[in-house]
Design brief:
Length: 428
């Protein structure tokens, strides 16, 4: 049984000539645009960014798995290659903080594989299983804090704190610092806005430097007193093959991008998207509540597939290459649009529908594929599972309250961020 994931008045371009993915109106609901690109220009050179946008499922996989032709090493550490904004940020990091090193996600194998094995060890299944009890308890505790009110802002009271508290605890931060850390991650996301002015760059960099000083104290403490957090392993264990532990600059690069933003903002947005989907698809909500054990895992996959909290990321062409007859010169940036591939009708039948019986739901590319496959996917899946399970267990019925909400997403090229989601509900 499926229902349509309805969209409110999305922009539907009639021609690829009208498309640029930096248009905030298209970002608000990019799916009709993806449909057009997939059919008419599956490898589309965006006229404003100059990036080659890939939208079909098979081609996305091909790019993500072709390490000879496509590189993740796109952030040059050479200050001479920096854009004016990067130069401003670089100077501030040099004088006041730490110039972030190359992150895990920005490395190529074999360098990436060596560093990844340190992370894989820290995020090993046994470790995630140990954290799961904390995730479960937190989910019910958070709901119990607002259950008597029969209303809440689902984003601020539930979807933000659940993954953020978990990752903070695993990264050595204190519970009471969680909202300060949220301000830093919000600033980091804003700092990545394409075309941000100088004032904005300075503000975002200063915020990141504040965060660096906070985390530097934690690194130094963990070096003297290791504990059972994930960060303790990342700080103290040697990278296999490197003969050394990560430097401060390398650790700082991981904190914002890969763990806090990559690890909490994404899960938050998936949790919010899930409730929007259930609000629009009441029959799915009923079916899920009647038998969560049977349907919940597939629902989680469908949320990540349909919403794709990471809409797309980039690769750099190492050689002149051709995809679908389009020549891509060496040095070009390729935007692999996971959000578009995840609704490709060549791979998913009725791709815009949420189908909690879909057999191939988990083959989505929402966590990417290949060597850069999301490190946190097992944790994210458990957070989403318990996030929705506690909601089903505690709440009998709910509705999104249109008059209380601004349901527009924050304009962002890669992430889909909902700032608020006021709901009213009847507790069980
Ligand atoms: C629903 C939640 C999440 C989504 C949709 C998501 C999505 C992704 C995607 C698409 C990539 C691939 C990057 C690429 O292609 O270059 C990725 C990589 C990564 N993710 Fe996630 N992620 C989520 C949750 C998490 C969590 C909870 C953590 C950690 C606590 C995390 C940490 C990372 C890291 C470290 C990488 C880089 C892996 C590498 O390059 O080897 N993510 N994620």
């Amino acid at each position: 049984m499926t229902e349509i994931n309805r969209m409110e008045d999305p922009i539907i371009p009639t021609s690829v000539e009208d498309v640029t993915l930096i248009n905030p109106e298209i970002q608000e609901c990019p799916f009709p645009t993806y449909d057009l690109l997939r059919e008419e220009a599956p490898v589309f050179k965006d006229p404003v960014t100059g990036m080659f946008v890939v939208t079909r499922y098979d081609e996305l996989r091909r790019v993500a798995l072709d390490y000879d032709n496509f590189s993740n090493h796109r952030h040059s550490n050479d200050p001479e290659m920096h854009t004016p904004s990067q130069q401003i940020a670089h100077k501030l990091f040099l004088t006041k903080g730490w110039v972030p090193g190359k992150s895990l996600a920005a490395r190529d194998d074999p360098d990436h594989k060596q560093m990844r094995s340190l992370f894989d060890d820290a995020f090993r299944p046994k470790r995630i299983a140990e954290i799961e009890g904390d995730v479960q308890k937190l989910a019910y505790d958070l709901i119990d804090d607002f259950i008597a009110d029969q209303e809440c802002d689902y984003v601020q009271q539930y979807a933000v704190p659940l993954p953020l508290f978990i990752i903070c605890r695993q990264m050595g931060a204190k519970d009471e610092d969680v909202w300060q850390i949220k301000k830093w991650t919000d600033a980091w996301i804003k700092g990545g806005t394409i075309g941000l002015d100088e004032e904005g760059v300075i503000w975002a960099t200063e915020m990141e430097i504040q965060a660096q000083h906070y985390f530097q104290a934690i690194f130094e403490k963990l070096r003297v007193q290791p504990d059972d957090t994930l960060l303790s392993d990342l700080v103290n264990n040697e990278v296999p093959g490197w003969g050394r532990t990560l430097s401060d600059s390398e650790l700082h690069a991981e904190m914002m991008q890969d763990t806090f933003v990559g690890g909490s903002e994404t899960t938050t947005n998936a949790m919010s998207a899930g409730i929007m989907l259930l609000d629009k698809n009441p029959a799915v909500w009923q079916k899920l509540r009647n038998d969560p054990d049977k349907y919940l895992n597939t629902f989680v996959e469908e949320v990540v597939r349909l919403e794709s909290p990471v809409q797309g990321l980039t690769r750099l062409a190492k050689n002149d290459v051709e995809i679908d007859g389009v020549r891509i010169p060496k040095g070009s940036v390729i935007d692999i649009r996971y959000g578009a591939g995840n609704r490709d009708p060549r791979h998913f039948s009725c791709p815009h529908e949420v189908d909690i019986e879909r057999k191939n739901a988990a083959s989505h590319l929402g966590f990417s594929t290949g060597t850069h496959y999301c490190l946190g996917a097992p944790l994210a899946r458990r957070e989403l599972y318990w996030g929705f399970k506690a909601f089903i267990d505690r709440i009998d019925s709910f509705r999104v309250v249109p008059e209380k909400n601004n349901l527009r997403h924050l304009p962002n090229y890669s992430l889909r961020i909902l700032k608020e989601l006021h709901i009213e509900f009847t507790p069980k």
